[in-house]
Write a structure and sequence with these properties.
This protein is an alpha+beta fold. It has helices spanning 23-30, 36-40, 50-63, 109-123, 138-147, 179-191; strands spanning 8-9, 14-17, 67-73, 76-87, 92-100, 128-134, 150-160, 166-175.
Length: 199
């Protein structure tokens, strides 16, 4: 396993490894849904919390503990996602800290982003890609099921969020030998959105 940063692109989105040029556009995207952060996220990137969240992303990126991406559609930064919990010895990684601007939800952005990240992970030798979803976040759980990820179970009270909420996480995963079927399912789904351009 050798998970490396790279620009990833399909006709729907372009994923760029996070750099300082993404800071203010990402701040604007995160500020588009201020009510979401206290409810469903482990860390906040909204409002006054953005600078601390940004520093965490960049620090973990510099140390190699995280590979964060800016999600771009139509030339605009519309969200972010990251490879986290990178475990080369176990050939395992998690995709997390995913956020999209409200107007980007329910369309091709999430499946197109996951398609790129899963393809990149498995091409780099990853065997297990995990996702951990707040057990209150039914929309994200439904998205994982629609993606084709396998629901493994619940980690009870595994995290204390920035608001003090004791969170339980629903764990999903896609293994390397499952990826061809999941990929075909994603490709079929993305075909339904027709032609578009990421940039």
């Amino acid at each position: 396993m050798n998970l490396v940063p790279a620009v990833l692109e399909n006709r729907f989105v372009r994923l760029e490894p996070l750099d300082d040029g993404h800071r203010e556009p990402l701040r604007a995207a995160c500020d588009a849904d201020p009510e979401l952060w206290p409810a469903l996220y482990y860390n906040s990137f909204g409002g006054e919390h953005f600078d601390g969240g940004w520093a965490m992303l960049r620090d973990q990126q510099a140390s190699g503990r995280r590979l964060p991406f800016a999600v771009i559609r139509g030339g605009e930064v519309v969200g972010m996602s990251s490879f986290i919990d990178i475990q080369p010895a176990n050939r395992a990684v998690e995709i997390g800290t995913t956020y999209y601007r409200p107007d980007m939800r329910g369309g091709p952005v999430n499946p197109a982003t996951k398609r790129l990240m899963l393809e990149h992970a498995h091409a780099c030798g990853v065997d297990r890609v995990a996702f951990k979803v707040d057990d209150r976040n039914l929309r994200s759980q439904a998205a994982m099921t629609k993606l084709g990820a396998v629901r493994e179970g619940v980690l009870r009270h595994d995290l204390i969020t920035w608001t003090g909420h004791v969170r339980s996480s629903v764990v999903f995963s896609v293994l390397a030998d499952e990826w061809p079927v999941v990929r075909a399912r994603l490709d079929e789904r993305l075909e339904g959105f027709g032609e578009t351009r990421a940039t």
